[in-house]
Amino acid sequence: MKRVVEGSQAVAEAVRLAKVQVISAYPITPQTHIVEILADYVSQGRMKARFLRVESEHSCMAALIGAQSMGVRTFTATSSQGLALMHELLHWASGARLPIVMAEVNRALAPGWNIWSDQSDSLSQRDTGWMQFYCEDSQEVLDTTLFAYRLAETVYLPAMVVLDAFFLSHTYEPVDIPSQEDVDRFLPPYEPAFQLDTKHPYALSPLVTPNAYMEMRHEMSAAMEDVLGLYDGLEEEMFRAFGRRYGMVEAIECRDARVVFVTSGTVTSTARIFLKKLRERGEKVGVLKVKLFRPFPTEEVRRALAGVPKVVVVDRNCSFGLGGIFAQEIRAALCNVPGERRVYGYIAGLGGRDITEELLEEIYGEVTEGKGPERENIWKGLQEVSHGGR
Amino acid sequence: MDSGVAFKRRLYMPRTSMTTEGNRTGSWRFLRPRYEEKTSPCSAACPVGEDIPRVEMLVTQGAFKEAWETILLENPLPGVCGRVCFHPCEGKCNRKDFDTPVAIHTLERFLSDTAFRNETKPVLPRRPPTGKRVAVVGSGPAGLSAAWFLTILGYECDVLEAMEEAGGLLRWGIPEYRLPRSELQREIGRIVDEGVRIHTGERVKKERFEELRTRYDALLLGCGLWKNRPLGISGEDVPGVEDGLTFLRRVRGGERPAVGGVNAIIGGGNTAVDVARSVVRLGGEAVIVYRRRREDMPAFFEEIEGALEEGVEIKELLAPSSIAARNGGLVLTLRRMMIEGKDKDGRGRIVPAGTETLSLEVARVFVATGADTAETWHLPPAGNDKTIRLSRCLLSFEEGVPVAYVGDLAGGDLNVTAAIASGKEAVMALDSYFKGGCGTILEDLSSCRVGDGTSLSMEIYLGGARKARSRHVVTYEEINTDYFSFEPRITQPRLLPDERRLSFDEIEMKLSAGTAMREAGRCFNCGICNGCDNCWLYCPDVAVIRQRRSGERLIDYNYCKGCGLCVVECPRNAMALEEEGGS
Amino acid sequence: MLEIRFHGRGGQGTVVATIILAKAFFQAGWQVQSFPFFGVERRGAPVEAYLRLDKEKILVRTNVVSPDHVVVQDRTLLSSIDVTRGLKRGGWILMNTPSPPEDLGRFRGWRLACCDMTRIALRHGLGTRTHPIVNTTMTGAFAKTLAMPPLEALEAAIEEEISVNPKGNVEAAREAYNEVLLVGEVD
């Protein structure tokens, strides 16, 4: 049934429908509404779950690692500094092959203190062995949360469902909330590959010498690769259950495009409007929405961008000293692919600044005019600043 | 719905069902920690060897009765000592090197007050009756102490007291404002309740004493020093010159002698100060005349301070040379003295400073320069092969039944606590004698020593838990002060000086339980385990085992690898680390 | 697509009002999007919330810069906030006020609607005497001013969203619907 709900509630509804058994979180804007709603559900008895209050995000992840090791489905939500504090334990969760699912509300890192949308927090956790999905609207957030459980519990890797601060987390829009029956059909109860049992005690992850460590890591890497093979099949199941699918990437009118904008998160929506307008003007432009970031869908990206001479990557993040992170990933994916093309990395919208249709048009103008910009990494929308003081 | 994706890869996840218990880390050990309780400096300094660290531990836990009983096993008079003891314990308290000593003295009095307020009946270990009877002459601190410990050890005991009320010096020599009569009576009442018979108004003369030898298995003589030591100067016998002890006894007996005008008190001991402060309370002016300096006065520091607060004047380095009557008053002639070198006891040696004298016109003179035995037969016999001199008493086996000379009669330290210790030592010696003859006394007593000094413990004598403690006295350096924080010492509430001058009301006031518990919490509990569980917490091999029921802590040597963390982190040195295979 | 901006103060239920309206419009067949001003909320501080309406799926994910209409829930904001910032010509300004403001000149080119929402809210016991909550009252006036959403849809949305005294809230909305004074274009 379609209801007008906040993006945070879309996450919470998915967690409720997934029959998560243990929830733990530490409050941080803009993630707070998600766990507020879940705490209500637990206290009202609408969810048969334990809500563990903890003193930090680090403790939160530690608690979930313990809980998930006992063979139950778990959930948390966090943002920004909170995710950064979790960092150490993110490795522990993936290394222990625990399919924990997290909602990560993209928020800028301090200083300056900023609670608004920015992808630097989640992208900083790129190499922790967590899957990452970047969502475009609240419906996708809900569906992807359920999908994340299914996928994570298939390959035994944790997953991060990423949504933009405020643009999604605090925005009300119509969302179709599936019935419990439909969800149950798509998402069977969690079957742990192993679980701690107090009756038959054993220790997990003891000291692992060079003899065995590399094999453990290789298996994690192989599991990530498995995701790419399993993804479409599982989405097909989701389509049959809810009538919706999204793809690892979505190539929108890329086939004949001369310029393709690569986007992620809510910027994709704005790009869709821009695309429609430009196509109406006869411009050969396309949009490639990258949803799955880890594992990185290299083949899908190559296929979508085959023969596209100019690629613009819009990044709401920055890896200082190199540039936008999505841009680097796209460049890496296109490396060793024959053919001439230019990839322009545009950094925009950091710390919650709007990325508007007009801004995208401006970028389009720059890359189509003559040979295109000189630089490969460009900051867009900067204002004059007064440095003041000493 | 059939699962379109039936995919499960097996996980490579190292795990072990071998418990860590398989790893017997104890096999690595070359150093062995063990629980070894030691002796606290306060208890070694206490003349009666009270188990102070345990008492304070119990007070901290609110176990006031148990704390009180712990004291009673070593000292039958905590209500007296909590008031008049000079508390050498506090001077040795390790806490003094950290901030300030624990108020042990005040806490002892608190426990006594609390026990009396709650009408607590102590439960103490008692030996079965021996069938032997002992007579104790004198019911002062030494006699009461002896009677108490005799009863605990199973002896029938009669106390013969010359005065009409028991207590000796406690009753007749210490002023009411330091030791109220009601408090003393409650202490004595408890001793009587234990089965001691006190016969008052029974003055024992020489003949009676000889008769007692035939009726009892042993005698204790503790009748104190009541004969004033004369000054040996002219005019000592003129009217208006009185000895201090007699004056104090009169006041304690209820008299309120007129002491108007200036009263000179000659002497520097507690009796001199007691007389001066009593004079002040009776409306007179008091001037203490002492031949040495103030810092040489044998009186307790707090007493001197109290006297000064109440307006007593102290004139130092003045020795009396004569007293003469003049114009209805007295003229005291004094010689100036000076310090030259040192005496054997470390005090400055005094010599006359030239020939200069000065005169003091006074209304009265009190002499308080010391006391002697009232009768010569009270003096213990000279040492010979039929006597055994112990630290605080003397045993004589000259004529039949053994006779113990206790308290001030035995010489040595002349104070209440020393007298209690003396009675206790004599009882332990007599018991040892009855069991094994003269030959075992020294060894038996030596095995009951608290630390390195002369204090003896009845608990150790009775084979109690304290027997297991090492005699090593814990030093400040051995305390792990990381576990303690600075805390101010409580201030003993007292009457204001102006209030004190108006009556003989007790100066020191009562303490609340909360305050007492907080103060006791400052105690390091040197050398004893108070269950802080640092050992358990820090043991990296979970080799420290807490017995839930008994509260005991054990070390599982299968796993203890001898890292010594427990010993280092023990805040109070209640553990020891020694080389494996050593003694 | 229509964009509407709501001005209020923290604690007045401005955000909830946009949610009620979003739900009512959705029931009436519109695609909706509503969100608060992205930031830190504090009681008493000026706040803004936004509502987007369209017949198509709403894709735009930016802040509202040039609204079609504005709502002012608290007249005292007029002295500190430029409520007409970016407001499109001819747009409605729905204001909580007992009577139209004196200096109408500053609203030239826009249409004005006035309603004494505070009085209505008080009469229905909404909020407290010192802090009446006018948000549901406002939605009634809003429905009349824009001639949408339908009153029935609005009433249903109020009953869904407001758990305390829903009847009073519905009645207040209905009263405001009937009482709002449509001053119309100011020139």
Compose a concise summary of this entry.
The complex is a heterotrimer of chains A (390), B (583) and C (187). Chain A has 12 helices and 16 strands.
Tell me the span between the first and last alpha carbons of chain C: 26 Å
Strand content of chain C: 15-25%
Strands in their spatial order, largest beta sheet of chain C: 2-3-1-4-5-6-7
Which structural category fits the helices and strands of chain C?
A: alpha/beta
Please give the largest β-sheet of chain C. 7 strands, mixed
Helix content of chain C: 25-40%
Note poorly predicted spans of chain C: none
Describe the protein's topology.
The complex is a heterotrimer of chains A (390), B (583) and C (187).
Chain A: E1 2-6, H1 7-17, E2 22-25, H2 32-44, E3 50-53, H3 57-69, E4 74-78, H4 80-95, E5 101-106, H5 120-123, E6 131-134, H6 138-155, E7 159-164, E8 172-176, H7 180-186, E9 203-204, H8 210-242, E10 249-252, E11 259-263, H9 267-280, E12 285-290, E13 292-294, H10 298-305, E14 310-315, H11 325-334, E15 342-347, H12 357-368, E16 377-379
Parallel strand pairs in A: 2-3, 2-4, 4-5, 5-7, 6-7, 11-12, 11-14, 14-15, 15-16
Antiparallel strand pairs in A: 1-8, 6-13, 10-12
Chain B: E1 15-16, E2 31-35, H1 41-45, H2 52-60, H3 64-72, H4 78-84, H5 88-92, H6 104-117, E3 133-137, H7 141-152, E4 156-160, H8 169-172, H9 181-193, E5 197-199, H10 206-215, E6 218-221, E7 225-228, E8 241-243, H11 244-252, E9 262-266, H12 270-281, E10 285-289, H13 301-309, E11 313-315, E12 318-326, E13 329-342, E14 348-362, E15 364-367, E16 371-373, E17 387-389, E18 394-396, E19 403-405, H14 416-436, H15 441-446, H16 458-461, H17 497-500, H18 513-520, H19 534-538, E20 544-546, E21 553-555, H20 565-569, E22 575-579
Helix pairs in contact in B: 2-3, 2-18, 3-6, 4-6, 6-18, 7-14, 11-12, 12-13
Chain C: E1 2-9, H1 14-27, E2 31-36, E3 46-54, E4 69-72, E5 92-96, E6 111-115, H2 117-123, H3 135-145, H4 151-161, H5 166-179, E7 181-185
Parallel strand pairs in C: 1-4, 4-5, 5-6
Antiparallel strand pairs in C: 1-3, 2-3, 6-7
Helix pairs in contact in C: 1-3, 1-4, 2-3, 2-5, 3-5, 4-5
